[in-house]
Amino acid sequence: MTFETPATRRVLVARPRGYCAGVDRAVQAVEKALELYGAPVYVRKQIVHNTHVVRTLEKRGAIFVEETEEVPEGAIVVFSAHGVSPAVHREAAERGLRTIDATCPLVTKVHNEARRFASQDYDILLIGHEGHEEVEGTAGEAPDHIRLVDGLDAVDTVEVKDPDRLVWLSQTTLSVDETTETVTRLKERFPNLIDPPSDDICYATQNRQVAVKEIAAEAQLVIVVGSQNSSNSKRLVEVALDHGADASYLVDDASFIRDEWLDGVTTVGVTSGASVPEDLVDGVLAHLAERGFADVEEVESVQESVRFALPHELRKDLRAGV
Ligand code: 0CG
Ligand code: SF4
């Protein structure tokens, strides 16, 4: 392997990166539930799409299940940050489960928009990835009104009831640029398509994309820390490649980094998805430092200060000192 001279090797770390307010709240919800009620606490689906977060919570006594039917009657179940459909709430109620809803408030906002437009008899073009939990939850709010648009190819084939009563909504964790392109194409086909009242792609997704663009312009390689099923993390790799990086990889942690990726590279960019704990980024920086990339500069593109209160079910019990 050929490394450049040490003086020329540097790392640019994007900021903002890592935990968003919705992930922080969801992870804390499971931690607080374990403290308050004791193990086990059941969690429907991965609380956030990160292998390390899930493993850490499992060690503390969380049990992750795919569906509420796997949860014993009367037990506590936390719903993940990605949200659930009304049908899941109903199933949980029927089984007498005690639920803690850790759906991110910004996902709930999209659910509310879906319900409102459906009640006004709009058809809703939901831009998002088929099979993603958030899309399943949002679509479940108004299954008869929502049509999924998964990528540009779907623009030409999606069918609607009335092209003059049509709105688009989206998953919160998409590529901003790709979504803009999809909407432009949709409007060519449906000129009366209306926009959502506010952005559905959330602040954290947008900011992490702005930040990675800045470092990708100067880095040959961009390492994105995140899990393979994390939509917002995967988008960061695509955005980095579109904005100047010669190569970009998504890694769960430093152990996935291959030495040959660093061949001939002088500037490495590092960022992480919204579901990624900072210690994993620290691990990547330590790994790079061992290979001569010790000069680390943080590049701040946007300041973030968003915080969300814990789910109300927990706040009530925390106040009561249960
Ligand atoms: O980016 P997605 O929606 O796949 O989720 P992840 O858990 O990685 O991060 C944000 C949330 C919730
Ligand atoms: Fe909420 Fe956005 Fe974070 Fe998803 S990525 S949990 S929508 S803040």
From TrEMBL:
Q: Which residues form the active site?
A: 134
For activity, the cofactor(s) needed are: [4Fe-4S] cluster
Q: Which residues bind [4Fe-4S] cluster?
A: 20, 104, 202
Q: How is the cofactor bound?
A: Binds 1 [4Fe-4S] cluster per subunit.
Q: Which pathway does this chain act in?
A: Isoprenoid biosynthesis; dimethylallyl diphosphate biosynthesis; dimethylallyl diphosphate from (2E)-4-hydroxy-3-methylbutenyl diphosphate: step 1/1; Isoprenoid biosynthesis; isopentenyl diphosphate biosynthesis via DXP pathway; isopentenyl diphosphate from 1-deoxy-D-xylulose 5-phosphate: step 6/6
Q: Where is the signal peptide?
A: none
Q: What is this protein called?
A: 4-hydroxy-3-methylbut-2-enyl diphosphate reductase
The record lists the organism as: Streptosporangium pseudovulgare
Lineage of the organism: Bacteria, Bacillati, Actinomycetota, Actinomycetes, Streptosporangiales
